[in-house]
Write a structure and sequence with these properties.
Blueprint lengths: L1 H27 L10 H5 L9 E7 L8 E5 L6 E2 L17 E7 L5 E8 L4 E7 L9 E4 L7 E12 L4 E10 L2 E12 L9 E2 L21 E7 L1 H8 L12
C-alpha cells in the first residue's frame, strides 16, 4: 500500500526540481529594451539621439567630380568617407555640385541643396534616409521664383516647425548688376511649389549646430550635420568604390 503513495509524490517533487533548476536562467533573462523610434515618432516631435558625431559634406576643386563626405566624433579629427572619393556624383553632364548645404527634416531624413549651375541660375536638390542612397537629383530653376536672377550661389535650407514649411535661401544677382549678389528667400512645404522670392533680412528659424572646428583638409567649402550613432557607424564603414554615386 505504500507504493501508490510514493509514486503520487514523485510528480510534485519533479516539478519543484525543474523550477529550481530554471531559476538561474530566469534571473539572467535581460530586461526588454524600448523599441527604436519610428519615423512617425520623430515626426511627432520625439527627437533622435544625435550624439553620434559629425558629418561634413563638401566639394573639392571645381566641384565637377561630386560631393565628398568626412565624419568626426569630436568635430576636430576627421575621417574621409569612401577612401576620400566622392560619395554623391553628378547625374548630368556639366552639372556642378558647389556650395552643398545639408539639413535634417522633421522625420529624421535629410535634405541636400547645392549650386547646380551659376548661369543659368539652378539649385540642385536631393533627399536621403540613410546618407548613402539618395533620391533622384532635381533642378530648382531660380527663375521660377525670381525671374530677374542672372546667377545663383550658396543655397541653404531651414525648417520652420511653427509654419511647417521650408525656407530656401540663396544669393543671386540680376542682369543689371551681375557682380552684386543679394540674399533672397522663398518658402515651400515639399520642394514642389515655391512662393515668389523676396529679399531676405530676417532671422533664421534655426539650423543644425556647427562644431567649433575648421573644415577637414582638402575641402573647398561645405556644411555640417549632427549624426546619430548608427549614421556615424554606417558612414565610417562605407566603402562604395569608384562607382559610389548611390541613387534610387
Amino acid at each position: 500500500m505504500l507504493m501508490p503513495s510514493f509514486r503520487a509524490c514523485r510528480l510534485p517533487l519533479a516539478a519543484a526540481a525543474l523550477i529550481l533548476s530554471m531559476a538561474p536562467l530566469l534571473a539572467q533573462t535581460p530586461a526588454p529594451q524600448p523599441p527604436k523610434q519610428t519615423w512617425l515618432q520623430r515626426f511627432l516631435g520625439i527627437k533622435p539621439d544625435l550624439s553620434g558625431g559629425w558629418l561634413f559634406v563638401g566639394f573639392k576643386g571645381d566641384s565637377h567630380d561630386g560631393l565628398y563626405f568626412a565624419v568626426s566624433k569630436d568635430g576636430a579629427h576627421w575621417q574621409p568617407v569612401n577612401f576620400d572619393r566622392p560619395v554623391l556624383w553628378q547625374q548630368q553632364r556639366g552639372e556642378l555640385m558647389r556650395d552643398p548645404f545639408i539639413q535634417r527634416a522633421p522625420d529624421g531624413s535629410v535634405r541636400l541643396v547645392w549650386t547646380w549651375s551659376t548661369d543659368p541660375a539652378i539649385i540642385g536638390y536631393s533627399t536621403s534616409t540613410n546618407l548613402i542612397y539618395w533620391s533622384k537629383q532635381l533642378q530648382l530653376p531660380v527663375a521660377r521664383v525670381l525671374p530677374a536672377a542672372a546667377t545663383v550661389s550658396a543655397p541653404a535650407t531651414y525648417y520652420n516647425p511653427e509654419k511647417k514649411e521650408w525656407l530656401l535661401l540663396f544669393a543671386a544677382s540680376d542682369a543689371g548688376s551681375p557682380s552684386q549678389d543679394r540674399l533672397y528667400a522663398t518658402t515651400t512645404a515639399a520642394f514642389q511649389q515655391f512662393q515668389p522670392a523676396q529679399p531676405f533680412a530676417g532671422k533664421l528659424p534655426g539650423s543644425d549646430a556647427t562644431p567649433k572646428t575648421t573644415f577637414p583638409d582638402g575641402f573647398t567649402q561645405g556644411s555640417f550635420l549632427h549624426l546619430e550613432t548608427s549614421e556615424y557607424n554606417r558612414l565610417h564603414n562605407y566603402h562604395g568604390g569608384f562607382d559610389s554615386a548611390q541613387t534610387k
